[in-house]
Amino acid sequence: MTILSEILDFNDTFVAEKQYEQYATTKFPDKRIVILTCMDTRLTELLPKAMNLKNGDAKIIKSAGAVVTHPFGGIMRSLLVAVYDLQADEVYIVGHHDCGMSAVDTGLIIEKMVHRGIDKNIFKTLKYSGVDMEDWLHGFGDVTESVKMSVDAVRNHPLMDKKVAVHGLVVHPNTGKLDIIIDGYMHNSND
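-> structure tokens emitted (191 positions)
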């Protein structure tokens, strides 16, 4: 049995038994917040519990490292849609200790791509086209600095409402302990 067939078998029971009813909510976040966090599997259930969130409380966006890498990329677009269309009034950037993006080895990732069948010539074409794989795949050295950079990118984005509080936190992936890096309320009160 494949993982997909296991998922679909479970889903048949889930729907038939109406287990979905306990998760009923709207598309608007009840606490009016949007969270950008890492896709790390340790945070899937831990982070919402550590933040006292239940289904429907927040929009949660996940990416490798919880990093805003491009001012007009998919992450920033999602944050802007959450604020302007889905009634989020606050943004939380939540990085975590022991993040895989803090030790990413671009060369090793490229080797793995080649091992799995990606033609080495693709990387020459990408370089010629202006894509720097090292820059595109790079991680970060310090999670605190990474969170600060992402908060700064969101807060100073030309399309972001300046009244929106943008917070920066770091969570411990084993305990759920949250450390505040930037209090968005304090920053907004100083403007």
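The beta strands are 33-38, 58-63, 90-96, 165-171, 178-182.
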